[in-house]
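Q: ATP-dependent helicase hrpA, please. Structure only.
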Amino acid sequence: MQYDTIIIDEAHERSLNIDFLLGYLKELLPRRPDLKIIIYLGDHRPGTFLKAFQ
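A: Structure for ATP-dependent helicase hrpA:
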């Protein structure tokens, strides 16, 4: 089974698990251009996350 969308909630609450997941997804995106990632932030400052995934 293959997924086409991954949703991460509360990404602003930095933890080892979230940091690992975001790093893994960033490495995965070039191999999976069809993959959509939705990141929910509670602090309304998306700049850091936008820069990381551009």
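A: Brief note, in case it's useful. Residues 16 and 22 are 10 Å apart (CA to CA).
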